[in-house]
């Protein structure tokens, strides 16, 4: 079972032009096994098929690396990334395994999923990872915007304008928001540009289309840079 998952994942990574290290693949295999086990009791994910899990969870998450800025502006130390609505760790944990230098925060309001995130990060011995059991609104209110991130990602949880409005106090100057959207992404960009009004000059909004490996599916990302 693990071999099938890894064969599919490796094929997808090669299509993306990524040659994965053996240690990283081992961590992904362990991750998938734990995700399966926990989902039997806590329904962390409804996906069960090895191919679906490899493509729609792991490869889908790794596509975010293609949208990361080439030279992210870092406020201090390592790039600080916040995954909003992390769920089972997608894309946050997958990205952290691939990029160990990322200082990662995983935000998830569900205690079951937050529990899984703590478990998997502990088992994989991932350092510099924080699990935040909270909603985005609660987190902004509790921190007062003191905690600042260089990259904030989410998987289709918010409309673009709403995400900008809710996260801008947490985003460093030159930092980026990355949203994975459906085919109607153009409508969301127009809405954001209209509702931002004169403030549009503070943001650079750009769409990026990427093919999901081993499929004919195109994923649409919106990258928003705070200028």
What do you see in this structure?
By secondary structure, the protein is an alpha/beta fold. The protein has a single domain, classed as Vaccinia Virus protein VP39 (Rossmann fold). 44% of the residues lie in helices and 22% in strands. It has 9 helices and 7 strands. The chain has a 7-stranded mixed β-sheet with strand order 3-2-1-4-5-7-6, with helices on both faces. Strand 6 and strand 7 form a beta hairpin. It is globular.
Quick description:
This protein is of the alpha/beta class and 227 residues long.
The succession of helices and strands, N to C, reads HHHHEHEHEHEHEHEE
Query: In the residues, how many domains can be counted?
Result: 1
Low-pLDDT stretches are none
Query: Main sheet?
Result: 7 strands, mixed
> Helix- and strand-based class?
alpha/beta
Strand content: 15-25%
CATH superfamily: Vaccinia Virus protein VP39
CATH class: Alpha Beta
Mean pLDDT: 94
What radius of gyration results from the CA coordinates?
A: 17 Å
Q: Tell me roughly what share of residues is in helical segments.
A: 40-55%
Strand sequence of the main sheet, in spatial order? 3-2-1-4-5-7-6
Assign the CATH architecture: 3-Layer(aba) Sandwich
**What characteristic shape results from the CA principal axes?**
globular
- Provide a count of the helices: 9
* Strand tally: 7
CATH topology: Rossmann fold
Ends apart, CA distance between termini: 46 Å
